[in-house]
Amino acid sequence: MKKLLLIVWPLLFVLVSCQTDAMPTRASLAMVPGGLPPTFTAAPGTAVATLTPVGTPRTLPPTNTPGFIPSHTPIPPTPTPTETPTPTAAGPTPPVIKPIHAYGIREAIPYQAFPKPPGDNGWGMHWIPTVSQERGVVDQFVAEMVRMHIKWVVFLNDGTNIGNNDYLVDRLVANGIMPVMRLYRDGILPYDGNLGAMVRHYRARGVYYFQLYNEPNVDIENQQSFANPDQYARAWANAARVVVENGGLPGIGALSPGGSYNHLEFLDRTFYALEYNGDAYLLNHAWLSAHNYHGTRPYNDPGGFLLFREYDKIVQAHLGRSLPIIGTEGGSYHPDANVDRQFIEYQYTYMRNREPYFFAFSYWLIANRAGGGYDTQWEWQTLIRPGYVHPVITEFFYNNAR
What we know:
The chain is an alpha/beta fold. The protein is built from 10 helices and 10 strands. It has helices at residues 2-21, 26-29, 135-147, 166-174, 195-203, 229-245, 263-276, 307-319, 337-350, 391-397; strands spanning 123-126, 152-158, 178-184, 209-212, 249-252, 287-293, 325-331, 358-363, 384-385, 388-389. The strands form 2 sheets. An 8-stranded parallel beta barrel has the order 1-2-3-4-5-6-7-8, surrounded by 4 helices. A two-stranded antiparallel sheet has the order 9-10. α7 links the parallel β5 (249-252) and β6 (287-293). α3 packs parallel to α4, α6 crosses α7 (263-276) and α7 (263-276) packs parallel to α8 (307-319). The longest helix has 20 residues, at 2-21.
């Protein structure tokens, strides 16, 4: 028996040792189905994805989007099929709406808090292309704006001049019309030191919106003879800072869809420049001006009247929210007044169910020579001329309160 035990015990020892060596390791598990997954290694020549730097969202939505379908009826949430009722998601948190002056300079103003005129319908009009008018002209055309149910009027101020447009602003505000002041400047040059005082003066009279510069993506609008989004971003920020500090809302100057520098790229790079320069906080109180000329292209052309949608995509990509967009120039023109009338009616009718961030559409322009204008190149684009009134005024604007 002792001899048998001496033979059996070594054999058992060997068997146990073999089973122990056969236990799977982490490396071996990776080689069999059901084991740990192997570590991923990119194949030679394959690009490895990198993280996008914070604050630099990039991918823009495609240009062509389906038509806007307005809806004011909330869709009831679908209940979760569980035995115990659970609350459903309520969607995005509504923005906190405060008086416009209650927002700090580093606090983003939601577009819902930006001021609008009483009885707002989104109908705007570009005024007369001069920097001031006689009182009789002001009275005549403000009365016309009221009869046409216009609620927004875009007008030119001679740089930082104080006083020349006092009467116009007073008459507009008294008639429930929101004035939008474009600070006319020949070139992307600094405004003078009177800017702060001018903003305070007109804020007290009811002007909130101050458009800084105009069509900076056009070469002839730039003193160095070529469009430069970085230079515009710096000039705009210097002026916008003064506007905000004095209670105004600075507007990014409208871009020309036909400018020498593609307007979509120019806007995108202007935002990048503001971010790089540390001036993006000024966008907290800013709005965007648009020149959404339509011509006679199809109604749903994204490069015409609906251009504001393309701008909003760029704004959303940078800020994650919408800025107010105000159309300060736009329109359709055709030798046959009955043709362009159809397009004008479409544009203003659209405003009844517009996207909420698109505040106003403004036709260029109500009058030129009839209002004291002297540059004849604009005459054919006016709705009122000496001895002539466009039929869209009498047959559409007069008869449509909403």
